């Protein structure tokens, strides 16, 4: 499996195993007849909207969101990317003024920072290709320094035109040629900070030890792959060998599989045995 498949596969798994916890809305300030922020917050709460994205940092808006419980994504406009990309200090000041203060003093539930707004649109003619990723790195570093990296995550908002397909079909999809390597760099950077992990793994009702390391799950092409610590894998194989006397025999016909057993009797479909596993299930 190539790197792109693994990266996109992991992102696919993260989206599939996530539980929908609310409805989100975009909140922009470019309007001829703006409503008072307090009125908008009241409308959001009355309609059960629990998440909101702000395209920039407006103090009146953030003050109105204080103690509302609504999860907030604050956005960094594209015209600020250059200054943040070129200065760690500027990024630290931005985080202190626009994130830390509102969290600690006003109890605003800021959960995300969007670095740029669709900065790789083709119509921008590459204007932000050199500044988006450095700005992302500097904002991430500033959040770590502020002690907020576990609470506030960093992302980049993209338009669907970051993708193209050589075949015209979804299965032929890839990142656009002109931004392919940059997109992979950004995604891999994100994986260093945010990844799925197995909390507990059982074989039937027997718990398997994960040791001191975290297991990672990758979903790709309709199959799930679980990367386990060596001790867990060895333990699992030992358990399977114990039940091999029931008629299972090792099959070496598929060289792509490190180890595989077949049986001379019907074996339950995954949909009937998924309750044995405490890890996220993907079909």
Automatic annotation (TrEMBL):
Which Gene3D superfamilies does the UniProt record give? Answer: Acid Proteases, Glycosidases
* One MF term in the entry's GO annotations: aspartic-type endopeptidase activity
Which terms under GO biological process does the entry name?
carbohydrate metabolic process; proteolysis
Q: Where is the signal peptide?
A: 1-22
| Keywords carried by this UniProt record | Glycosidase, Hydrolase, Signal
Q: Tell me the SUPFAM superfamilies matching this sequence.
A: (Trans)glycosidases, Acid proteases
EC id: 3.2.1.39
According to UniProt, the reaction catalysed is: Hydrolysis of (1->3)-beta-D-glucosidic linkages in (1->3)-beta-D-glucans
Q: Which domain of life is it from?
A: Eukaryota
Per the record, the similarity remark reads:
Belongs to the glycosyl hydrolase 17 family.
**Name recorded for this polypeptide:** glucan endo-1,3-beta-D-glucosidase
